[in-house]
Amino acid sequence: MAAPDAPRGRPRDSRAHQAILTATAELLAEAGYAATSIGAVAARAGVGKDTVYRRWSGKAELVYEAVFTQTEAVPVPDTGTLRGDLTVLLDALVREFTAPGAAAALPGLLADFAARPELRARIRSQFLAPAKSRLVELFERAVQRGEADPDLPVDLVLDTLAGAVFFHTGLLGEPAGPQLAAQLAAIVGRGIEAR
Amino acid sequence: MAAPDAPRGRPRDSRAHQAILTATAELLAEAGYAATSIGAVAARAGVGKDTVYRRWSGKAELVYEAVFTQTEAVPVPDTGTLRGDLTVLLDALVREFTAPGAAAALPGLLADFAARPELRARIRSQFLAPAKSRLVELFERAVQRGEADPDLPVDLVLDTLAGAVFFHTGLLGEPAGPQLAAQLAAIVGRGIEAR
């Protein structure tokens, strides 16, 4: 907590940033994607619309960060096994996709991504980049332990993990039981072929 | 082809059915999801709107059948190996998701599914049922060959396969190269752990 006479700038900026993200997630859960306008978010966060636009170029970018960057808030898992690490990673993904804000945001967000090719082109390079770098770190350790091949198609593994969680929980709305992350980690980690 | 004096009914019905599905896929690709109304589909197929409503309870159901039942049109793969069968299945999925009609339909279809809980509740039981029965058949042969565990969570494997293809091609719009199905079959079939 900054003291009242602390220099302005980063601390206040950081508080505004977090207030905007929190307001966005709350609005999504309460009122849905369509009603979550930049103006409504700014009003709820107690900032001006220009403060929002200084940080995010549009609603889709703001909503994406508000609901899909939870995974990056926790350290990269290091349980000692690839399967263990994948389970932790998938568990965070499941929590992200089943949070009230994310569930409310997904359909509208997908429609916006699909309708705006320039946004869609940035999904891989911008939105998915942090998740990929975490997966790469986790795979590098698995390769060192001899648990994984060094020539894994990381992008495709990421799409498989995210796609499985999205399809199961986000699209079908299946309840995310406590075993879901471990079951998906087993399917993608060990594969479905018997050995 | 039915002779002119053949009894009416199924043959003509079947032709109307196919004409409606074809008109739907074409309209989606040309004009997008929003413009693909039941009225526009009926006009293009040369039938009355009531003929469409006799077969499909709404636009989402019709669009889903028009773009996502290609996989069921080919025999269940039986290549002799689980990996080979998965590759054929995934290849059909990739073709479905990258067809012009499907690519145009997906965002609007997802938004409709999300906005109508009664429709969403039927995805698993109705829309995904044919794909699951094909996967079950393929797994049963793999279990008999000792290639797969008998207690596989089939629903979750199906969600992983469909989710991976949807996320990679449908959502991100990645080009579907000739190796995509085989790479996904390797990830899900063999797993990413080295052995």
UniProtKB/TrEMBL annotation, chains A, B:
A Pfam family that the UniProt record links to this protein: TetR_N
Keywords, sorted A to Z: DNA-binding, Transcription, Transcription regulation
PROSITE patterns: HTH_TETR_2
SUPFAM superfamilies for this protein: Homeodomain-like, Tetracyclin repressor-like, C-terminal domain
InterPro entries with a match to the protein in the record: Homeodomain-like_sf, HTH-type_TetR-like_transc_reg, HTH_TetR, Tet_transcr_reg_TetR-rel_C_sf, TetR_C
Coiled coil stretches, renumbered: none
DNA-binding region: 37-56
Limits of the HTH tetR-type domain: 14-74
The keyword DNA-binding is annotated on this UniProt entry: yes
Signal peptide positions (record): none
PANTHER family cross-referenced by the UniProt entry: HTH-TYPE TRANSCRIPTIONAL REGULATOR RUTR, TETR-FAMILY TRANSCRIPTIONAL REGULATOR
Name the record gives this protein: TetR/AcrR family transcriptional regulator
Protein species of origin: Streptomyces chengmaiensis
Classification of source organism: Bacteria, Bacillati, Actinomycetota, Actinomycetes, Kitasatosporales
